[in-house]
């Protein structure tokens, strides 16, 4: 735990800690990562053991309720994944991307800190004990199947990983868990899906929710197992099956417990359920309930929209193939009454990963450019922020500036629920 920065007025600076110091222990507890630090640095009196230039130094400090040491550390090393999941999206990336897109993390600490999904295959009893002792809750677990033979096929593992035993131990110690199933037709659907969901329901309320998402398949699957995509009939069956199970769980738990991803509704054209259906959106970052939350937010957006723009203006709204009809029906009518505004909706096919990939978050800069390059326009392009990572990069390493330069058109970023759309129309065009 190397200190890389110290707040000027923090207690760490006042007691003499320095950038480059290696924090070894707090109150005799070894400090191996950021979670250890946060957990043990919350005590009112701290005894710190630090290594500096080969010497061991000791510091003592008393913390007031609002004081902190004010330390920042180098990023800790993540555990990597040793599974060989037959549907792993990282294995379906084309060559030549930035190295981070090929890194497979499998670290329960990232699940706690950032909501990453982990399978727990590499978790041992010592890890479970630490999770319990430090109350690392909630955790997000990719289950996929509870039947061993099915898990063996899906995860590409040779020895039983005793997942249900691990989950049961965490449940007994009141660790909150949210589970995910990536649905692969013909492997973990139908009876296997029902078994998995019922097995997990036995651990309620520790297992708070289960979501079912469709397998994502790109065109870059050479030398990978042949998998069937989720077709419309598969999606209809999943919605019917989950609907029947929800009736059982609603009566038993006062919660729907299991939820299908939004893609199933969009793919089949079935109505998006009401907000009550999602019981507080426990796994919204996995695409479960985002459409409903968007629809709930649009009336608030409408009230803030201008009635008229000062001059005739045209905008191009970009989306993926999956959400095109939704935006056509829900967002475009919101904008049409605005005087002096013309709106064009462009659905961008995904050539980079293949046309089976239809979600907007996996659009690349080059595919957006290809969809717009033939237009003789110079009006602004409204682009979903979801296409970019935290560094402002598309998956193909293009930046917004790259795309704007290639198109010779301004690019304006729109957030997930269009909450910044009124500001864009009033000030950014």
In brief, what are we looking at here?
Helix content is 32%, strand content 20%.
Topology, element by element:
Blueprint: E1 3-6, H1 11-14, E2 22-26, E3 29-30, H2 34-40, E4 45-52, E5 55-62, E6 71-73, H3 108-114, E7 117-118, H4 125-133, E8 139-142, H5 148-155, H6 163-172, E9 177-183, H7 190-201, E10 207-214, H8 232-253, E11 258-260, H9 262-268, H10 290-304, E12 308-320, H11 324-330, H12 332-335, E13 339-348, H13 365-372, E14 381-384, H14 400-407, E15 411-414, H15 421-428
Parallel strand pairs: 7-8, 8-9, 9-10, 10-11, 12-13, 12-14, 14-15
Antiparallel strand pairs: 1-6, 2-3, 2-4, 4-5
Helix pairs in contact: 8-9, 13-14
Task: Describe it.
The protein is α/β, with parallel strands linked by helices and 429 residues long. It has helices at residues 11-14, 34-40, 108-114, 125-133, 148-155, 163-172, 190-201, 232-253, 262-268, 290-304, 324-330, 332-335, 365-372, 400-407, 421-428, and strands at 3-6, 22-26, 29-30, 45-52, 55-62, 71-73, 117-118, 139-142, 177-183, 207-214, 258-260, 308-320, 339-348, 381-384, 411-414. The chain folds into 3 domains: 3-73, Roll (Pdz3 Domain), CATH 2.30.42.10; 90-288, pyruvate-formate lyase- activating enzyme (Alpha-Beta Horseshoe); 297-428, Rossmann fold, CATH 3.40.50. It has 15 helices and 15 strands. It has a 5-stranded parallel β-sheet. Strands 3-2-4-5 form a 4-stranded antiparallel β-sheet, with helices on one face. It has a 4-stranded parallel β-sheet with strand order 13-12-14-15, sandwiched between helices. Helix 13 runs parallel beside helix 14 (400-407).
């Amino acid at each position: 735990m190397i200190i890389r920065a110290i707040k000027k007025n923090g207690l760490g600076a006042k007691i003499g800690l320095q950038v480059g110091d290696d924090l070894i222990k707090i109150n005799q507890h070894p400090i191996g990562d950021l979670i250890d630090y946060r957990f043990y640095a919350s005590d009112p009196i701290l005894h710190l053991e630090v290594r500096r230039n080969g010497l061991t130094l000791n510091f003592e400090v008393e913390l007031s309720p609002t004081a902190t040491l004010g330390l920042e550390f180098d990023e800790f090393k993540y555990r990597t994944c040793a599974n060989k999941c037959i549907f792993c999206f990282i294995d379906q990336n084309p060559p030549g991307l930035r190295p981070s897109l090929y890194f497979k993390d499998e670290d329960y600490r990232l699940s706690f800190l950032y909501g990453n999904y982990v399978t727990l295959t590499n978790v041992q009893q010592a890890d479970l004990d630490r999770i319990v002792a430090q109350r690392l809750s909630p955790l997000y677990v990719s289950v996929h199947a509870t039947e061993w033979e099915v898990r063996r096929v899906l995860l590409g593992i040779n020895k039983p990983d005793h997942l249900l035993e691990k989950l049961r131990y965490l449940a007994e110690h009141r660790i909150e868990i949210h589970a995910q199933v990536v649905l692969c037709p013909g492997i973990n659907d139908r009876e296997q899906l029902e078994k998995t969901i019922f097995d997990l329901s036995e651990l309620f309320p520790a297992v708070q929710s289960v979501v079912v998402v469709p397998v994502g398949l790109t065109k870059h699957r050479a030398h990978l197992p042949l998998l069937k995509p989720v077709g419309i009939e598969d999606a209809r069956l999943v919605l019917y099956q989950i609907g029947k199970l929800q009736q059982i769980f609603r009566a038993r738990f006062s919660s729907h417990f299991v939820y299908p991803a939004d893609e199933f509704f969009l793919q089949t054209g079935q109505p998006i359920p009401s907000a009550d259906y999602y019981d507080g959106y426990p796994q919204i970052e996995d695409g479960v309930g985002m459409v409903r939350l968007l629809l709930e937010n649009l009336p608030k957006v409408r009230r803030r929209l201008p009635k008229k723009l000062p001059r005739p203006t045209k905008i191009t709204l970009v989306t993926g193939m999956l959400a095109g009809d939704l935006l056509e029906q829900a967002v475009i009518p919101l904008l049409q009454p605005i005087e002096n505004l013309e709106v064009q909706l462009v659905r961008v096919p995904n050539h980079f990963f293949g046309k089976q990939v239809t979600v907007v978050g996996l659009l690349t800069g080059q595919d957006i450019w290809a969809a717009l390059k033939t237009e003789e326009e110079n009006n602004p392009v409204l682009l979903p922020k979801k296409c970019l990572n935290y560094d402002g990069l598309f998956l193909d390493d293009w930046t917004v500036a790259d795309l704007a330069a290639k198109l010779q058109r301004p690019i304006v970023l729109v957030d997930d629920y269009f909450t910044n759309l009124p500001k864009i129309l009033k000030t950014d065009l």
